[in-house]
Write a structure and sequence with these properties.
This protein is of the alpha/beta class. The protein folds into 3 domains: 6-112 and 242-312, FAD/NAD(P)-binding domain; 126-238, 3-Layer(bba) Sandwich (FAD/NAD(P)-binding domain); 330-406, Enolase-like, domain 1 (2-Layer Sandwich). It is built from 10 helices and 26 strands. It has a 5-stranded parallel sheet with strand order 3-2-1-7-19. Helix 1 (13-24) runs parallel beside helix 7. The radius of gyration is 22 Å and the shape is globular. The protein binds flavin-adenine dinucleotide. Flavin-adenine dinucleotide is lined by residues 9-15, 34-37, 44-45, 47-48, 81-82, 108-111, 129-130, 156, 245, 248, 278-280, 295-298, 300, 324-326.
Amino acid sequence: MRLTRVLIVGAGHAGGTAAAVLRQYGHEGPIVLVGEEPIPPYQRPPLSKAWLKGEVDAGSLALKPPEFYAENNIDFRANVRALKLRRSNRLVVLSDGSVAEYDRLILATGARAMVLPIKGRELKGVTFLRTTADADQLKAALGPDKTLAVVGGGYVGLEVAASARALGAQVVVLEKEDRLLARVTCKALSDFVQGYHERHGVNFELRCSILGFKGVDGHVAGVELAYGRVVPCDAVVVGIGADPNEEIARDAGLECARGVVVDLDARSVTDHNIFAIGDVAHRPMPIYDRMLRMESVPNAVEQANQAAAAITGRPRPPGECPWQWSDQYDLKLQIAGYAFDADEILVRGDPATAKFAIFHLKGNQVQSVEAINAPLEFMMGKTLILGRKPVSKTKLRDPAVSMKEVGT
Ligand code: FAD
């Protein structure tokens, strides 16, 4: 009997993990892992944090040691882009002129940084942060005598702001909403984070609309705001979100909704031979009875496990509580769940101590928790979210009551 051939398109966190887990789960057939970047799968989170600050080297970003792929009989092909998916022939046309046939295809093409369609975006010094190549460019632009303008006050932008301050650069964050992290968190956390950054010397321009980038000799020199105001800078990093790389799936007729629509096995709802995992997938989240696309490492790993389990005929792994993290200065933010339909916000601990947690509740159920230097609140918060168990708000609010007791 011929062994099942698995083709993985996209050699990022999700694709690299899927290849490894397939072997771990005993898949014996061929695995081809195709990626358009020049290096094997690596971790992106340090690009805005430890790596940018120079605390870790490039080698430490690798998901697996370089020899891992050959040792595990994984045919990793760098610098190769998948151009077209032909479902009727079960093959993918690749940019090196070859085609790759599959029995099971895993789409792990991730997402790309959103572009601001404004004048001056082609100037040197206007950067994004998605790949190691982007990160190299950004790092070269930072230093004590430089000013960095960060467009977008989301997690990645704020991490870059903190790292740039650590490198001695002046930093101004430009945000179109009236508060930071407006799409993802509550006002209490936005205010706390802004205050923390201000104490570290970051300047903010909120409610600002950016008209374009101004350049001198082809290099960015400022950001043009409404009414002719220009914020001078030596470099810009644009961090306004990401778009899923779903084009080859959509062109091949797979159902997409800002992400390839998949089921609880990470399998496309249109074609049972195809899976989509990580940032490119629009997936069910049963604890909220919703579909959503997530951009986080835990999500990439969870879905890689789902796809590998389905392909190797293993039971579906138990559902996990979604979570992610962000490091800024000495703050460790850990975020579990989503505040969908929350009707109450409860703060445990004192924000003035920079060790507290914000719980979002729907009735007596915890929907999400944002923990700042508060790992116990984060850990138990995850358990409460996943368990859908009602909690005592009186206990939850009182830091003198242990999280263990809150959870019982
Ligand atoms: P990616 O890692 O984007 O990998 C997709 C790969 O597919 C890429 O290499 C891409 O080039 C390739 N590709 C795309 N199209 C094709 C094609 N047609 N052919 C071949 N290859 C293709 N998450 C957290 O949980 N915590 C954090 O602190 C955190 N920090 C982050 C900081 C930064 C700067 C960034 C950019 C992301 C951060 N994330 C963080 C998000 C996390 O890195 C992503 O959720 C994760 O990388 C998703 O993995 P993925 O494999 O789905 O996508």
